[in-house]
Design brief:
The protein is an alpha/beta fold and about 250 residues long. Helix content is about 40%, strand content about 15%. The protein has 11 helices and 9 strands. Strands 1, 2, 3, 8 and 9 form a 5-stranded parallel β-sheet that branches. It has a 4-stranded mixed β-sheet with strand order 4-5-7-6, sandwiched between helices. Helix 8 packs parallel to helix 10. It is globular, with a radius of gyration of 17 Å. The structure holds zinc ion. Zinc ion (ZN) binds next to loops.
């Protein structure tokens, strides 16, 4: 058993790369998924296993894509059809997440253990539902916004309602906007470093009404991602999945 005073040292320089696999923002198409093989090639080049949070909707429409990714990476759950779960009653939340779990399990052969709420919009009831459905970890809180989550802003990993709560460290648009700021932030933020992508970020988006989507996306993002991963490797970050990290965390407390 690792003593808690050693925990910070043990958890230093860990990075979890995550991909939220969902439809494109607007119009509701799935063009972004075409870029996943290239993204996975970059991960392969550096022998990285990542966590892909998939919606049931994507899993039903593209079972072969999800199955192939599950052979190397962790598949987590990202809701049924990217609905705002925080607006729904608990029973409805349970039904949608349970259906999503069953859909993912049918395709991959494994029950997802990690969860990220669509739009990072979670609430206390969702955490209760996740515990009922035997999830191990949730990653719906982020450091950089106090408004997306009802629970007070948190800055570290903790056990929340029986789940390992692993906050996201860096806004998804930052790498495209400023690779140097992303690198700097990566060195100073508390561990583990959790970064997240969406498939549609790797294409050119023509969205007049979504500033964040527009600034976050572009075909050059793949190159920036590889450069960033190479930087993290040089800085001796250890890459792991949410599931692996949660296990390590639980063994550390
Ligand atoms: Zn999402």
């Amino acid at each position: 058993m690792v003593k808690s005073k050693d925990m910070n040292g043990k958890l230093q320089r860990i990075v979890i790369i995550t991909m939220d696999m969902e439809n494109d923002p607007l119009p509701e198409t799935y063009q972004g998924l075409k870029f996943l093989p290239k993204f996975c090639e970059v991960l392969d080049k550096y022998c990285i296993r990542a966590t892909f949070f998939v919606t049931a909707d994507v899993t039903q429409k593209f079972p072969d894509v999800v199955k192939r990714i599950s052979e190397k990476h962790e598949i987590g759950c990202h809701g049924f059809a990217h609905e705002n779960l925080s607006m729904l009653p608990r029973k409805k939340q349970y039904n949608l997440i349970k259906m999503a779990v069953d859909t993912i399990e049918k395709v991959t052969g494994s029950k997802p253990l990690s969860f990220r709420a669509p739009g990072l919009k979670a609430n206390y009831n969702i955490l209760l539902v996740l515990r009922d459905l035997e999830f191990v970890c949730d990653s719906s809180i982020n450091y950089f916004s106090r408004t997306d989550f009802f629970i007070l802003w948190r800055s570290k990993v903790e056990i929340l309602n029986g789940l390992v709560e692993v906050p996201i460290s860096i806004p998804y648009f930052l790498l495209n906007v400023s690779p140097s700021l992303t690198k700097l932030a990566s060195l100073v933020l508390p561990p583990p470093l959790v970064i997240y992508f969406h498939p549609w970020q790797f294409m050119k988006l023509e969205l007049k009404n979504s500033m964040r989507a527009r600034i976050s996306a572009g075909t050059e993002l793949l190159k920036k991602t590889e450069d960033y991963i190479s930087f993290l490797e040089k800085q001796e970050f250890r890459f792991m999945t949410m599931k692996e990290f949660s296990k390590l965390y639980l063994s550390s407390i």
